[in-house]
Amino acid sequence: MSLFAFDDSFRSQGFRIIAGIDEAGRGSLAGPVVAACVCFKEEVFIEGIRDSKELNSVQREKLFEEILSKAYVGVGIIENDVIDRINILEATRLAMKNAIENLSKDVSLLLVDAIQLPQIKIPYRAIIKGDRKSASIAAASIIAKVTRDNLMRNYHKNYPQYGFEKHKGYATKEHIKALHKFGPSPIHRKSFYPVNALMLF
């Protein structure tokens, strides 16, 4: 079944307007978690839509622009200090809630990549590996990933010693080495290991 056909299968159940939700940056050591909510306009098909992790940066950027032109899009961004305060799962849920609220379209069903959203009153389905099954979730994964990558590139200008432009805050050898050399930056997640192990209390 194609990703667009998967979404259509819910429309055949009576859910006429469907949106997909996914996040980027949940496992990063630094920066925000970003969620996106995408609702395609009627009769839209975009060639090449799939999980953002299966695309290179050039493909993602191209699809990002096409999705923005052919879909309603909402984005939610939760910064590292909030992640440290409420934990990454709750921060992810909050980012998703904000993305839904920022979507300028009323929807009848939300397709969410794996995460339960008990605070959301709109009907939803939490779908395991949804970014590989649903076109709208895959599109949301692309929007979230490109949005977050751009934010991390901007952070790189302020903190070039960490290499955020390359690894986007994930735990690469280069990043861990920089952490040990320079200590955590203001955008590092102080509740995450090994960042917390380097903190002086």
Overall description:
- The chain is of the alpha/beta class and 201 residues long.
- The protein has a single domain (3-158), classed as Nucleotidyltransferase, domain 5 (2-Layer Sandwich).
- The chain has seven helices and five strands; from the N terminus they run αββαβααββααα.
- The chain has helices at residues 3-11, 57-70, 80-86, 88-101, 135-158, 164-167, 173-182; strands at 18-24, 33-40, 71-78, 109-113, 124-127.
- Strands 3-2-1-4-5 form a five-stranded mixed sheet.
- The longest helix is centred in the C-terminal third of the chain and has 24 residues, at 135-158.
- The termini are far apart.
- The mean pLDDT is 95.
Just give the CATH class: Alpha Beta
Number of helices: 7
Overall body shape:
globular
Radius of gyration: 17 Å
The third-level CATH topology is Nucleotidyltransferase, domain 5
The CATH architecture: 2-Layer Sandwich
Mean pLDDT over the full residue set: 95
From N to C, what is the helix and strand string? Answer: HEEHEHHEEHHH
Number of domains: 1
Name the CATH superfamily assignment.
Ribonuclease H-like superfamily/Ribonuclease H
Secondary-structure class? alpha/beta
How do the strands and helices of this protein lay out in sequence?
Layout: H1 3-11, E1 18-24, E2 33-40, H2 57-70, E3 71-78, H3 80-86, H4 88-101, E4 109-113, E5 124-127, H5 135-158, H6 164-167, H7 173-182
Helix pairs in contact: 2-5, 3-4
